[in-house]
Design brief:
Catalase HpII,  Chain A, domain 1; Rossmann fold; 3 domains; 29% helix; binds protoporphyrin IX containing FE; Catalase_AS; peroxidase; Catalase_clade2; Catalase_immune_responsive
Length: 743
């Protein structure tokens, strides 16, 4: 039995895939008291003092002969490798991919897409594009969504983004685009954002970018979590079936938790308060067993229909509208294991669009063609020519080639031939019927020149389609985002000229931006808006099929004298639906409940009010308790917590005196709150603009409440949970309530 086969036998469960088994050979797990050694294995007696001349009271020179000191410094001096030229900041996790059945076999013979008995190990890395390795997670940017499938026929990489289109059509423009988007050359400013002259200068002069700019400036540019974004392969690939027929294909990942974003003010603040927000969110969810999951879908177009559309299907600045090319869900991707060590896994993982397996191929998409060259090339500069031998990158199937040597070669091939043909028939090319990769025999006709096809010249139909398809509040966010960015451009040539591009998309959009940023307000549309809409462009089209609060972070604000019995009942209800509750109090210690409640030393607070901010939670709950409510009223920080959550459109729940605190101290505008007729002894629930209030809640309420997360439930916790499952209350914003609160 080969090593790979024995590994597969040993690791058959979903969390220990064949790839995890393969990595075991390189994993070291130190135990307490294990000895420290040099890298050549000699035990070290002192790692704190350089070998030197000393007379006991004074130090003389340190000696170059200290091979242990030298090794330690040498190794440290060379710890850094070049960061990725783009997508430098990222976080990754292991998981698996499975198809539901063999329905895709009409398009492809690739077993990874057709064999439902297989569990294919994967590693997925999410990233931002613009910033350096140490930049913040929540900046406005495109997110990378790259997945390596360790299939039995070799590695297949989908190197995609959370946005289905790209800024440019032809790979030759990529260096210009990246130079323009990255920090400016003279002062290396700004970090992790596109709000600067050079980006807007470039996109203003390169109208093919208009569609992607619209997506990046929409809420898609500030995802709430990697777990709540779509993934797209973006480029057009091809599938080949057993009869030799070819289809063009686009790949999609659709998150189980719905597509959801931060609000901009929140994203800005989290950038300072918790720059690792997204990577922590990914790890927290996996460690809590709330494994991120995506449906995997394909859109296919048969070879004969290639030219049947009014856009070119090989143009990466265009989507294939769902109404024209429906999505077929064929499988799912699950991430269920965090990395053991960041550098060897997340930093050294190296993706290539050119990594395809038999049954999957390329198209003549001019962006993809350039990418197929670029990724391999850049991995050589980042990791060295033998990067595919690194544990995270090596396939789980046998690898044998006549490629040899180069820096840091690991594999030892025991053979006296390293070329083909050879007298021993070693490393022989494999015919297609035995699994050898073969390209589709494509007829080509044309003349050689530097040019793009005719349909590549049209740039505004689809940005219009995108804009028209957004919900009203999403349009407002889009306008605000463009205004924010253009306000950061100092050169009037830049911020004034982008209005022309916007006016080719929508007259009202262009006017709204021009007024705010000191552009020239257009008097007539650059071209008429066709008024068409499409499904799947607004995030509203992606609410989870079943409302869920799995893994949502809920802050419970308490001080001494709070109602611990009620709080425990609410917390138990929310936790039973797999939300993650955090108790926030005046100190990270035990908080005393109201008199008469026996809770030993009290309830332990996970954090104190200054240690966290409302931005880091999805919802807030304030229990009852007279003394507790009076203390809350004296804390400006807590009042700010609640007002900020209101401004960020998050669900807020309160009971009893907690409601009085909302009414008398926080004073949320325009919201109906529970009114106690005589006392708080009522469990009637009032839900208004995502604020859920009641007089009392007890264990018996929890029993009748039963946590049904549905729109018309009566219970307090159920109502709260339903509001959380809807992510935010955007009506609060569209009715102008959030604007009235200082936060
Ligand atoms: C459809 C358009 C594109 C998409 C969706 C895309 C996506 C990505 C993603 C997700 C990564 C990060 C991979 C990781 O997590 O390690 C990445 C990195 C990179 N991309 Fe692209 N990209 C696109 C276009 C291009 C083009 C046109 C080029 C060059 C011609 C290019 C060159 C690179 C390079 C050099 C890296 C760094 C790779 C590394 O060091 O590991 N990309 N891209």
């Amino acid at each position: 039995m080969s090593f790979g086969e024995s590994v597969e036998k040993a690791f058959t469960t979903m969390t220990s895939t064949r790839k995890i088994g393969d990595l075991q050979r390189d994993i070291q797990e130190p135990r307490p008291n294990d000895p420290l050694t040099t890298d050549h294995g000699v035990k070290v007696s002192d790692t704190d003092n350089w070998l030197r001349i000393t007379n006991g009271s004074h130090n003389g020179p340190s000696l170059l002969e200290d091979q242990i000191g030298r090794e330690k410094i040498h190794r440290f001096d060379h710890e850094r490798i070049p960061e990725r030229v783009v997508h430098a900041r990222g976080a990754g996790a292991h998981g698996y991919f499975k198809v539901f059945d063999d329905r895709a076999s009409k398009y492809t013979f690739a077993p990874v897409l057709t064999d439902s008995s297989r569990t294919t190990p994967v590693f997925t890395r999410f990233s931002t594009v613009q910033g350096s390795r140490g930049s913040a997670d929540t900046v406005r940017d495109v997110r990378g969504f790259a997945t390596k499938f360790y299939t039995e026929e070799g590695n297949w990489d989908i190197v995609g983004n959370d946005i289905p289109v790209f800024f440019i059509q032809d790979a030759i423009k990529f260096p210009d685009f990246v130079h323009a988007v990255k920090p400016e050359p003279h002062n290396e400013v700004p970090q992790g954002q596109t709000a600067h002259n050079n980006f807007w200068d470039f996109v203003g002069l390169q109208p093919e970018s208009a569609h992607m700019v619209m997506w990046a400036m929409s809420d898609r540019g500030v995802p709430r979590s990697f777990r709540m974004m779509q993934g797209f392969g973006v480029n057009t690939f091809t599938l080949l079936n057993a009869s030799g027929e070819r289809h063009f294909v686009k790949f999609h990942f659709i998150p189980e938790l719905g597509v959801h974003s931060l609000v901009w003010d929140e994203a800005l603040k989290i950038g300072g308060q918790d720059p690792d927000f997204h990577r922590k969110d990914l790890n927290e969810a996996i460690e809590n067993g709330a494994y991120p999951k995506w449906k995997f879908a394909i859109q296919t177009i048969s070879q004969s229909k290639e030219h049947a559309f009014d856009f070119d299907i090989l143009d990466a600045t265009k989507i294939w509208p769902q109404e024209l090319v429906p999505l077929e869900e064929i499988g799912e991707l699950v991430l269920n294991r965090v990395v053991d060590e960041f550098f060897p896994e997340t930093e050294q993982v190296a993706f290539c669009t050119s990594h395809v397996v038999p049954g999957i191929g390329f198209s003549d998409d001019p962006l993809l063609q350039g990418r197929n060259f670029s990724y391999f090339d850049t991995q050589v500069s980042r990791l060295g020519i033998n990067w595919e031998e690194l544990p995270i990158n090596r396939p789980v199937c046998p690898v044998l080639s006549h490629n040899r040597d180069g820096k840091s070669r690991h594999r030892i091939v025991k053979s006296d031939v390293n070329y083909w043909p050879n007298r021993k028939n070693e490393g022989r090319p494999v015919p297609p019927e035995e699994g050898g990769y073969v390209e589709y025999a494509q007829r080509l006709d044309g003349i050689k020149k530097r040019a793009r096809g005719e349909k590549f010249q049209e740039h505004f139909n689809q940005p219009q389609l995108f804009y028209n398809s957004l919900a009203a509040y999403e349009k407002v966010h889009l306008v605000n985002a463009i205004c924010f960015e253009l306000s950061h451009c100092e050169d009037p040539v830049v911020y004034k000229s982008y209005i022309d591009i916007l006016n080719n998309i929508d007259f009202d959009l262009a006017k709204a931006v021009a007024i705010k940023v000191n552009g020239e307000v257009p008097t007539k549309p650059g071209r008429p808006n066709h008024g068409k809409k499409s499904k799947g462009l607004s995030q509203l089209d992606f609410l989870p099929k079943e409302p869920t609060i799995v893994s949502r972070r809920i802050a419970i604000l308490i001080t001494d004298g709070f109602n611990a019995v009620e709080m425990q009942a609410v917390r138990a209800a929310l936790t039973s639906a797999k939300a993650v509750c955090y108790v926030i109090g005046p100190r990270r210690n035990f908080i005393r409940p109201m008199s008469g409640q026996d809770f030993g030393r009290g309830v332990f607070a996970d954090h104190h009010f200054e240690g966290q901010r409302s931005t880091l939670f999805d919802a807030i709950y304030i229990p009852s308790g007279e003394e507790h409510a009076k203390t809350l009223a004296k804390s400006g920080r807590v009042v700010h917590w609640v007002r900020e959550a209101f401004g960020h459109l998050k669900p807020i729940a309160a009971v009893g005196e907690g409601v009085d605190f909302l009414r008398n101290v926080v004073r949320l505008p325009g919201v109906d709150l529970f009114v106690p007729s005589h006392n708080h002894d009522s469990d009637e629930v009032v839900t208004s603009y995502g604020v859920i209030t009641t007089g009392k809640y007890s264990i018996s309420s929890a029993v009748t409440d039963a946590l049904q997360i549905a729109p018309d439930t009566r219970g307090f916790a159920s109502n709260f949970a339903f509001q959380i499952s809807q992510h935010r209350c955007y009506k609060r914003e569209s009715d102008g309530l959030s604007d009235q609160v200082a936060f």
